[in-house]
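FW: tagging you since you asked about this chain on Friday. Here's the raw sequence from the shared folder, copied in full. Didn't touch anything.
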Amino acid sequence: EDGFSIERWNGSSYVQIATVGSNVTTYTNTGLAYNSQYSYRVAAFNSAGSSGYSNTASATTAQLTAPVAPSGLQTTSVSSTSVALSWTDNATNEDNYEVRRSTDGGVSWSTLTASLPANSTTYSDNSVSAGNTYHYQVFATNAGGSTGSNTISVSTPAASNDITIASIGTNAVSDKNTWQAQFTVTIVDGSNAPVSGANVTGAFSDGYSGSATLTTDGNGQCTFNSPFIHKKNSNVTLTVTNVTHGTLSWDQVQQSASVGKP
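HL: got it, structure written out here
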């Protein structure tokens, strides 16, 4: 013989799925469905044609089992607006990971995500709010079922009445021999939410001296612009010296930022 033709029953007829060389006596059919029966037959062939078929052999693939449960579910960080989770991936046959959360002490559960890919070990829940307690559990899933990790309880910190300077963004605009320094200040509260209506006082120094008080918009931002100054002045600094609000208190931490001429 020159080789062997291997055929598999497809429900209505035998179809060739592979050929192997002369004297080969084994073949492994991979990529099959779980818990399914397959039937095979083999024929030898050479340049003159094919032999008759062998006896038929049938086998049933193993039933898919649920993956091994993840373990060691824990938090890696907790804030008033976010809970970061991690766990150990113990499974080798999971399709996805599913994260569930309870807001009533574990009585009822909702699914935060059911589509984390296989081998995932982290997830961040950014839908929490300040001063609440949440329970979490992670499940490894496949078509054979799902298995759950340990359950943990997480309490987010209460929102602070303080407001703080989250950032000072910088930009520089050129116009021939002059340039303008721009500083965008962002104010947030204890839940890291933008604060509108905050009065921000900033003082310029280095290439330009002056001060101004601006009010933050709905994004918690206001932008300080220096006048256009000669390019012999190489940089400008803004220091936020005061922040006031009708109901919130500033944490009194001043911040500065500098920008160079373009």
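FW: The chain has a mean pLDDT of 94.
HL: agreed, and DSSP finds no helices and 22 strands in the chain.
FW: great, closing this out.
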